[in-house]
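Troubleshooting log. The previous structure file for this entry was overwritten by mistake, so regenerating from the original sequence record. Sequence copied from the archived sheet and checked twice against the printout by T.R.
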Amino acid sequence: MLSGQQASQTDKPLITIVGVMGKQGRSTAFCLIKSGLFRVRGITRKTNSAEGLKMAKLGIELIDLPLRPGLQADFTKAFAGSQGVFLMTPNIIPPDNYEFELGKQLADAAVAAGVQHIVFSSLENVVSISGGRYLAPHFTDKAKIEVYIRSLPIRSSFIMMAFFYTNLAEFYTPYLADGKLIFPIYLPEDFQAPFVDPLTATGPAVLELFKHQQKYAGQSLPVIGEFISPRQIVNDFNLITGQNAVYSSAYSKQELLHHFPDMSQQPELVQEILDMTHFVVKHGYYRKQRDIEWSQNLNPERLTWKGFIKQTKWQGEKKVY
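Regenerated output below.
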């Protein structure tokens, strides 16, 4: 385990976070700083935002740098002096498909900068598990990046985030119709799926991996709040908010476009969502050998769906995180 609570600020190991303003990045930055064990640097295009100014006040160094291929030398410079890097690739909306190349260049930059340990936010390889039936590049490309990182001369470990509770407010927002709040959810009503709050769960998981780097070297660990069905999601929402919400399936293409007609202008995105959700229902979100209890044991105070609703006081409105 790394020590550092008694060390001076400049003696603490430096961790650089790629995409520090994202949900996972923010959670990790604040958790690492709060631990007192690490200095934190973050890569973002939002250095002057309210959140960026808040981070700067906490002593987090921010570097203004876009996350796109072709900037490997800039990434190497940004990683200079870092003991570890928390590496994420951003949401890339199809038909754009540069996630693997970006992840590769970020990993190569970490090696070139002399970084000792990469923690990467990965997911399962949908193509290999489904035998090519499903694609879901934003899963599969992360899995390919993980394989690439494992081939490099650097210590690495990996987290695998579950579905986000926040997605239900940010991207699949309920809407009023006929006096009811319609919850369009991309899974069958009674399918038990893993969900998590990335804003509170990511940081403790990444902190654990950086605190115990040798222990977790080479491991890929799920980060889960709970397994919950859409039926329970809606029932819990009604119980806590007192509203009259009802589940409505967005699992098929016809259903998805019924609830979100604007998506008809993005057929590649629609196919990606369908491939992701149908893969999860048929094959499971995680491979069977994954330790699905690890993060729950590590963080027993994690937010469940009920806790998320209570803490955020969400009433069904659209939110941007």
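The chain has 14 helices and 13 strands. Archived copy saved in two places this time.
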